[in-house]
């Protein structure tokens, strides 16, 4: 579980998030919504330990991530995978090398073991036979799949998707959503999805958290979100 307590984050004296209290439940999908610039990515970066808050704590499985030294933080981060909006593949590497990278950096597996794991994950995301393709040669949807395969290769407990369907055509976007749901049921994952995509929210039906004006204005299950009386939530749902 991720427990966020009294979190305030500001840049240059201007706060983006103020006194946020939030629990993200284990083995579920939580969707984070809110207008552009409301602080969704900042919140995700804080959970990753990349951005330090002014005040407050973030506990991941009971561990206060801002009390850790660098080495300890790396250990916690290994439990967490991040799927960045632009996929963040390395253009100078091919598909195999991109997916294998975390294993090469963080494990001492043999080359054969790495190959086997990479093939298995690429198969899982529906991408076989493209090992040698350079990432610059891939379509947006394929890049997302490769990034997904890379994200799960270290068997994370948590996976954070920042706008996983943005910029994809509707059919590919639906496939990516299906894949997120498949990964969720195949592994014991705790998934966090940052999205504007109503179709994604409707298909995932997980817990929903909405940020507005530096605060959490909704935190609950999908059905309650759909029936919420808050005028801003209603406007968002239209
Ligand atoms: N490193 C930074 N330095 C200064 N300001 C920042 C930094 N990162 C984010 N901000 C500011 O914090 C606010 C929230 O940004 P954030 O990226 O979290 O928005 P978002 O909700 O993810 O928006 P979007 O939906 O467009 O991705 C913005 O005003 C942004 O300019
Ligand atoms: Mg963002």
Tags for this entry?
238 residues; alpha/beta; single chain; 4-stranded antiparallel sheet; 39% helix; binds adenosine-5'-triphosphate; Rossmann fold; 6-stranded mixed sheet; binds magnesium ion
Can you characterise this structure?
With 238 residues, the chain is of the alpha/beta class. It has a domain at 1-79 and 200-238: P-loop containing nucleotide triphosphate hydrolases (Rossmann fold, 3-Layer(aba) Sandwich), CATH 3.40.50. It is 39% helix and 26% strand. A six-stranded mixed sheet has the order 6-7-8-3-9-10, sandwiched between helices. A four-stranded antiparallel sheet has the order 2-1-4-5, with helices on one face. A hairpin with a 2-residue loop joins strand 4 (55-60) and strand 5. The longest helix has 17 residues, at 170-186. The protein starts with a strand and ends with a helix. Bound molecules: adenosine-5'-triphosphate and magnesium ion. Adenosine-5'-triphosphate binds next to helix 1.
Short description:
The protein has 238 residues and is α/β, with parallel strands linked by helices. A 6-stranded mixed β-sheet has the order 6-7-8-3-9-10, sandwiched between helices. A 4-stranded antiparallel β-sheet has the order 2-1-4-5, with helices on one face.
């Amino acid at each position: 579980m991720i427990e966020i307590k009294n979190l305030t984050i500001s840049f240059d004296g201007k706060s983006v998030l103020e006194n946020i209290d939030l629990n993200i439940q284990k083995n579920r999908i939580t969707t984070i919504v809110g207008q552009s610039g409301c602080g969704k990515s900042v919140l995700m970066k804080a959970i990753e330990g990349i951005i330090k808050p002014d005040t407050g704590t973030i506990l991941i499985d009971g561990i206060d991530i801002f009390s850790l030294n660098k080495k300890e933080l790396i250990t916690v981060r290994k439990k967490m995978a991040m799927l960045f909006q632009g996929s963040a593949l390395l253009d100078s590497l091919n598909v195999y090398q991109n997916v294998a990278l975390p294993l090469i950096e963080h494990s001492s597996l043999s080359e054969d073991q790495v190959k086997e794991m990479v093939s298995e994950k690429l198969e899982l995301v529906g991408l076989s036979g493209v090992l040698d393709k350079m990432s610059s040669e891939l379509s947006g949807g394929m890049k997302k799949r490769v990034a997904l395969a890379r994200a799960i290769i270290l068997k994370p407990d948590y996976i954070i998707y920042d706008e996983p369907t943005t910029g994809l055509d509707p059919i590919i976007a639906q496939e990516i959503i299906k894949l997120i749901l498949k990964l969720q049921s195949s592994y014991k994952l705790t998934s966090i999805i940052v999205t504007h995509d109503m179709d994604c929210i409707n298909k995932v039906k997980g817990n929903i958290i909405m940020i507005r004006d530096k605060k959490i204005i909704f935190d609950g299950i999908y059905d309650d979100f759909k029936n919420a009386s808050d005028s801003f939530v209603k406007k968002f749902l239209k």
